[in-house]
Automatic annotation (TrEMBL), chain A:
It comes from Actinophytocola xinjiangensis. PANTHER family: ACETYL-COA C-ACETYLTRANSFERASE, NON-SPECIFIC LIPID-TRANSFER PROTEIN-LIKE 2. Transmembrane segments: none annotated. Residues 245-369 form the Thiolase C-terminal domain. InterPro entries: Thiolase (IPR002155), Thiolase-like (IPR016039), Thiolase_C_2 (IPR055140), Thiolase_N (IPR020616). One of its GO terms (molecular function) is acyltransferase activity, transferring groups other than amino-acyl groups. Residues 20-215 form the Thiolase N-terminal domain. Gene3D superfamilies: 3.40.47.10. This is Lipid-transfer protein. Pfam families: Thiolase_C_1 (PF22691), Thiolase_N (PF00108).
TrEMBL record, chain B:
Residues 20-143 form the FAS1-like dehydratase domain. PANTHER family: BLR3430 PROTEIN (PTHR34075:SF5). GO terms for molecular function: DNA binding. Transmembrane segments: none annotated. It comes from Actinophytocola xinjiangensis. Residues 209-271 form the ChsH2 C-terminal OB-fold domain. Keywords: DNA-binding. Pfam families: FAS1_DH_region, OB_ChsH2_C, zf-ChsH2. Residues 172-203 form the ChsH2 rubredoxin-like zinc ribbon domain. This is DNA-binding protein.
Amino acid sequence: MTAAIAGIGATEFSKDSGRSELALAAHAGLAAITDAGLRPSDVDGMVTFTMDANAETALARELGVPELTFFGRVPYGGGAACAVVAHAAMAVATGAASTVLCYRAFNERSGRRFGQVHTPDGVDNGWHYPMGLVTPAASVAMFARRYQHEYDVTSEDFGRVAVLDRRAAATNPNAWFHGRPITLADHQASRWIVEPLRLLDCCQETDGAVALVVTTVDRARDLPRHPVVIAAAAQGSAADQFTMHSYYRDDLTGLPELGLVGRALWAGSGIGPEDLSALVLYDHFTPFVLVQLEELGFCARGEARHLLADGTLELDGRLPLNPHGGQLGEAYVHGMNGITEAVRQLRGTAANQIRDAEHVLVTAGTGVPTSGLVLSR
Amino acid sequence: MIEEAARELAARGESARRVARDPVNLPMIRNWTEAIGDDNPTYEHYAPPAMAQVWTMPGLAGQRPADDPLGAMVAVLDEAGYTSVVATDSEQTYHRYLSPGETVEVSSRLDGVTGPKRTALGEGWFVTTRSTWYVGDEPVAEMMFRVLKFRPSGVAGTAIRPAVSSDTEFFWAGTALGELRIQRCGGCGRLRHPPGPMCPSCRQTRPGYVVAAGEGTVYSYVVHHHPPVPGRAAPFVVALVELTEGVRMLAELVGVPPSEVHIGLEVRVGFSRVDGELTLPVWRRR
């Protein structure tokens, strides 16, 4: 790859930002541009999520970005997280733009809450929402139940993801759950949301924004920050794919779209699972963290619970997972805060810094067409 | 508990007769016909038949007698969380005209309680009572009266509706008729759910359908607790079912306590009419 992440920025993560989503986007965008040592007038491309409510034009007006030669959006909710960087990297690689601002901004707690019941459009949704399967938690719970059934996985196995995330968040000052670790007993005592998911299996809802600046590696080398190279970026959609409801495949215990992304990342970067310094896995709901570990080849099918139990993924383990606290612990900014954490780890500026971090894997939303990144120092 | 209480109340039969506060009288007839706008001269001599219920109204501060079956059944349903009420229909039968000076008495019995039914307002029970008005021992009028006692769904009438396209309307037309339809390719015969316009096996665009036997087993399921869902009372179960025809299909599993649901549970399809435009498939234990 010839692209790098040159700057990152974010707002505070809260439950009530007190300002508009556009104000959040502008704040994070300016922070990312400034962090890169650039000015808004250097930006000539923008990429965000299809779900983002802030038009590129509106953000450009606020920031004083005069001209855009590239703008695009990526669909499928949090599955877009790493894909916005992939699209930006392709834009700078082809010369469609030189400096691309990627952003995601929402008042997802004080405004439209993802965890509440909505009635989405689309014929596909008609097979699920009217039947009473009405929240993302419910959609994931259907997979989780089958996964438990086939591999003898327990609620405690899911709970270990939450405990791990919250342990890291406890020592991350930017995390909403800073200073508030949980025990497995806390997880087991938390109420059912949609069985087999408990409250502490479900990530929080957050008001906030994250932005980052992608440019060419050559250009990034001339900027003040140490560039974080996009070693590989990939998107994936697999056979018989639905958004959150791929219930009609033979096997319900995998995430084949993520397996596809993983294979593309290893092939594109020449970096394999054994080369990674840390993992940032998308954790809107705990069960899919286990499935991701299996799908990406860190262990065999049904074995991820052992990885979680044996300390491998702890901050001081061989392969730390979500050192910022993940979305369960830090904030839910649709996966974008996981990318900025990977950048901090590779710069050596993370709250829970991993020694000599060289390559970090980041994944995007699961259960949907998804994406991933391998970032390198 | 609800069905038991209903059986017990129905078995009590007619309540004690309650005597009208006043005899049938011309001043009340005049007020009533003027309010209604009915100037039929017959009502100078006889009471309009539709006034039957008027004569035994308990008055503004009146209370239901303790043995009134509707009051007792409403209390049971209130207790069970079905706290809202809407009258749905009423049928009156008149045996003869009443004349001023006659004193009527009324007696009621519980005819039946059916449910739980899913309605656009929320889940509820239909309570049907029958009242008879007497003069002496002569029945002069009768009334069937039905109410829906329902659990308010938060926002009434907001059942989540499917987006329907020309590719999928056959399915919803089927549920309205009590048929569970599975798309069948007109070219290669492949069965497919959810349906679509082009067969992914042979690429023909001639989809038809078969009517499923409606039997299958639970492949996976969830128990929804939170947040509240319009039109449904938590906890409720949604199950992904593998039909005997080989396709999977999702629907609510009703009539089985969540603790008794398990993967492999044998189910049969049923149909839950939401309103004139939407009927949902549901699973029931086989």
